[in-house]
Design goal:
Elements: H1 4-15, H2 20-23, E1 53-54, E2 60-62, H3 66-80, H4 83-93, H5 117-133, H6 136-156, H7 167-174, H8 181-199, H9 202-219, H10 224-230, H11 238-249, H12 253-260, H13 264-271, H14 282-299, H15 302-318, H16 348-365, H17 368-382, H18 415-423, E3 432-434, E4 438-441, E5 447-451, E6 456-461, E7 469-476, E8 482-488, E9 496-499, E10 502-503, E11 512-518, E12 525-529, E13 534-539, E14 542-550, E15 553-558, H19 566-569, E16 585-587, E17 596-598, E18 606-608, E19 616-619, E20 628-629, E21 631-636, H20 638-645
The chain binds zinc ion.
The site of zinc ion has 7 residues, from helix 16 and helix 18.
């Protein structure tokens, strides 16, 4: 372990540089976990602090707009799931009575992943939703489930808690087929920890510690080699949750357990900056890297930084679709810079986990490119994956002409149902960050920030991306100078700022922050214009598939809903059927953008131009029930393209 005393001294020296208003709240705030209301002690276990760092979830209120609407849909779905059905298989496994109707899908009594959502993701989602909204009735419901699961753990008597018997772990140790027992345990541990962190539920922490102790005792006698073999079976973010338990409790044994959950064959090449991801299951591995990020923050070992930083750049640079998503048939199938699309491209969990990782990358670096990626993925890969009843997608099919499919309320419960529940509970968590000098406005989402520790209230009014820009009003101003750092996105083509209606002679380059530092007054209003333009993006390694963006927004050709039945939309993990016929574009070169034109008079309405047929295009996040094309097949007029290349 690094020398803590040296670090604390360094911190104390740093603290003198801070404005008095910020000093009182503690400098080394735990970036992930020190969000417990009322806790003021600095998170000394964090050896690498985030600068900038997020506000606590309850400090950022969403205001009416598409993001709040999406969260409301999710909130209604969380209320819909009955506790006795969620707890049923935990009770049966613990030998306790239960007459509830079992849930179906991946929570069904014979499915080996049961418990991942009902005792895991669900608790995380409720905790995050409570942190964001203060929904007391949802909190009470989640407390009830924590109670019920604690009774199950007590009945097992050894810390174990699961909706399947411990024999699954015997199978894992013996190399017999079993789905992913540690993956499921990770969700249960994280769900309980989130209930502690965001809701202050002490019993949930006790349950998590009891279960973590069981994991420690189970893994302890296993040799390194045997453990490495066991880690080839998906285990989620077991390393991450153990680091987080350490961050909360200070018990070093959790660091030791976290280190046992490191797959050498995956981490070693990343550490050496080699992309050997081809052939790996994507969502098995992204959570392990989030664990590496937490390892870096809590141990300051550069190895973990190299793993997380290199991986993030590799995925976002070489292995992402125009939507920001990654994976095809759940795998990275090709060498870097080469991708394919199909009915099962872009597993939703991958987008969720990449956004989680992106927060760490941004926290370490303040790199605007991280927030460019966050915006791209949030708006294009995440927002459209939930429908109006709060039901979520599994795969986002990027083969041209397919459609979106969603879970059924009680009979699907895919991994992506669970991560989606969490995602749409925490839509407010990245809009604003801050450092000792001021606030970062990362995302353009209607919201209000209330930061009494900075004597600041800030309101953001925008219908972005329908509106090409945003407006910020200082509702309550601090007495001291404060910097408002506004993100100028990678896609911005020019742009401008106004203060109280008067143009300001400053702006910044694409993919940067423009910083307005002044003594603000109540009612000051900053308007930022961000003109959008059409720009094409080909699939990595395959210019014969091309997507069109307008500013940050992926556009999708809308081929209508005539061919889509309710049965095709609900219950299937992907669109298993015939795609609509999507015309092949006739183009001169890959970055040509004039094959789409804007329809005047309506925001974000477009159509194909100069092609064999006219097809309407809309933002992909708006296309929920039609057959669509994000990527279009393209044919290039050979001579002209060759001529251009020469
Ligand atoms: Zn998934």
């Amino acid at each position: 372990m690094p020398d803590r005393r040296a670090f604390v001294t360094q911190l104390a020296a740093g603290a003198a540089l801070l404005p008095a208003a910020l000093r009182s709240r503690g400098y080394a705030q735990d970036p992930v976990l020190d969000t417990i209301p009322g806790r003021t002690a600095p998170g000394h276990r964090e050896l690498v602090s985030w600068r900038p760092e997020p506000f606590r979830n309850h400090q950022v209120a969403l205001r009416p707009g598409l993001v709040l609407t999406a969260r409301n849909h999710n909130q209604a779905y969380l209320h819909l799931l009955p506790n006795d059905r969620l707890a049923h298989m935990f009770r049966i496994t613990a030998g306790l009575p239960s007459n509830a109707e079992p849930l179906g899908g991946w929570e069904a009594p014979k499915v080996e992943l049961r418990g991942h959502l009902s005792g895991g993701h669900y608790l995380s989602a409720c905790a995050l939703m409570y942190a964001a909204t203060g929904d007391e009735s949802l909190k009470r419901k989640a407390y009830g489930l924590v109670d019920a699961l604690a009774a199950c753990q007590k009945a097992h008597g050894n810390g174990y808690l699961s909706a399947f018997p411990v024999s699954f772990f015997d199978r894992l140790r013996e190399g017999k087929p079993v789905w992913a027992p540690f993956y499921t345990l990770h969700k249960i541990l994280a769900g309980h920890l989130d209930m502690y962190v965001h809701c202050g539920n002490e019993q949930a922490l006790k349950t998590a510690e009891g279960l973590a102790g069981w994991v420690g005792r189970w893994t302890q006698p296993l040799s390194y080699d045997l453990m490495q073999r066991i880690l080839l079976t998906e285990y989620g973010g077991m390393n991450e949750v153990m680091y987080n338990l350490y961050a909360v409790t200070g018990k070093e044994e959790y660091v030791a357990i976290a280190r046992r959950f490191e797959t050498a064959s995956f981490f070693d090449p990343l550490q050496a900056h080699r992309d050997e991801l081809k052939g790996l299951h994507a969502n098995t591995h992204i959570p392990q890297v989030i664990g590496a990020a937490r390892g870096y923050e809590l141990t300051r070992e550069p190895r973990y930084y190299n793993i997380a930083d290199y991986f993030w750049h590799e995925i976002t640079g070489e292995r992402a679709y125009a939507t920001g998503g990654t994976s095809n048939n759940e795998y990275w199938q090709h060498d870097p810079g080469h991708m394919a699309v199909g009915p099962a491209s872009e597993e939703c969990c991958c987008g969720y986990n990449m956004l989680k990782l992106t927060r760490h990358i941004f926290g370490w670096s303040g790199d605007p490119a991280a927030m460019d990626y966050y915006e791209r993925t949030l708006f294009n890969s995440r927002l459209g994956t939930q429908e109006e009843h709060g039901l979520k997608q599994y795969y986002v099919a990027l083969r041209p002409g397919l459609w979106r499919t969603f879970n059924t309320p009680f009979d699907s419960f895919w991994c992506c149902t669970g991560t989606g529940m969490e995602e749409f509970s925490k839509m407010n968590d990245t809009i604003y960050f801050h450092d000792q000098h001021g606030v970062y406005v990362n995302l353009f989402i209607a919201s209000e920030l209330n930061a009494p520790e900075m004597n600041l209230r800030l309101r953001q009014d925008t219908s972005f991306p329908e509106q090409e820009g945003t407006a910020l009003t200082v509702v309550a101003a601090p007495r001291e100078e404060l910097a408002l750092n506004l993100r100028v996105p990678y896609w911005a083509q020019g742009g401008g700022l106004k203060l109280n209606g008067q143009p300001l002679p400053v702006f910044s380059n694409p993919s940067s922050y423009v910083s307005l530092r002044r003594r603000w007054r109540n009612g000051d209003r900053v308007e930022m214009d961000l003109p959008m333009q059409l720009h094409a993006e080909t699939l990595h390694g395959n210019p014969e598939l091309v997507a069109m963006m307008y500013g940050p927004v992926c556009l999708a050709g809308d081929f209508g809903k005539a061919g889509i039945t309710q049965k095709m939309r609900y219950g299937n993990s992907g669109p298993w059927g015939q795609p609509a016929k999507v015309p092949t574009l006739q183009l001169d070169h890959p970055d040509q953008a004039n094959w789409v034109e804007q329809v005047r008079g309506e925001p974000l309405r477009f159509q194909l131009a100069g092609q064999s047929q006219t097809v309407p295009l809309r933002p992909f996040y708006q296309v929920r029930d039609s057959q669509f094309a994000v990527y279009w097949p393209a044919h290039y007029k050979p001579r002209r393209w060759r001529g251009r290349q020469a």
